[in-house]
Write a structure and sequence with these properties.
single chain; 10 strands; two-stranded antiparallel sheet; 13% helix; 7-stranded mixed beta barrel; alpha/beta
């Protein structure tokens, strides 16, 4: 039976530059296409999800997510930007005040929607996308994350890989995705299982 390919579940951000498509391929063969808003690179890792309504700066810097592709189920992500990376905690001194550690630990980020540069918070100094690019972390939006989470819950933990669209294969209508045989349009990389690596030594 042919694997299921899901094209973007939402339209791209209006009046924002197109950063290309990303295809999230799962170990079971299913594929979810969305829009890039992080670092322009392809990665592989273990797919996990988080159901919190707030706290994405804390989640992506949590060392327990090291090497994993984090799926955020709450549909509003990036709306309050990212606070200063330089402000240190008054008590701990050597750790940032607003994060769980001094770097992003996830391998990649998957969201349903993304606020883009239209963020608002008195502590914010940049957008989520800008921060992810600073640290070389790819991200994508336009995914039905609740359906994706249901698949993970039903089938159990599985590997995934976020594949960036090749430069020569851009589409005039990104919201339509790439139907049919999508693989020639995206990067090809090996699967990576973070459970087989010494993540403590890497961190």
């Amino acid at each position: 039976m042919a694997a299921t390919v899901y094209r973007p579940a939402t339209a791209p951000i209006a009046d924002a530059p197109c950063e290309g498509l990303v295809c999230l391929e799962l170990e079971d063969g299913s594929a979810y296409q969305g829009y890039s808003f992080g670092a322009p690179k392809s990665i592989a890792g273990e797919l996990v999800f988080q159901t919190g309504m707030v706290g994405y700066p804390e989640s992506v810097t949590d060392p327990s997510y090291r090497g994993q592709i984090l799926v955020i189920t709450f549909p509003l992500v990036g709306n309050y930007g990212v606070p200063s990376r330089e402000t240190m905690d008054d008590l701990l001194k050597d750790l940032p005040a607003h994060f769980e550690s001094n770097q992003i630990h996830i391998a990649g980020l998957v969201t349903a929607s993304y606020a883009g540069e239209d963020f608002s918070h008195f502590l914010a100094t940049s957008s989520l996308g800008t921060w992810l690019k600073e640290q070389g972390i790819p991200a994508m939006y336009g995914i039905d994350t609740r359906a994706l989470t249901k698949r993970i819950r039903e089938k159990g933990s599985m590997l995934g890989r976020m594949l960036l669209q090749k430069e020569g294969f851009t589409t005039s209508a990104p919201s339509l995705g790439v139907p049919g045989d999508w693989k020639p349009h995206f990067d090809t990389i090996e699967w990576v299982n973070p459970n087989e690596k010494n993540l403590v030594a890497e961190g």
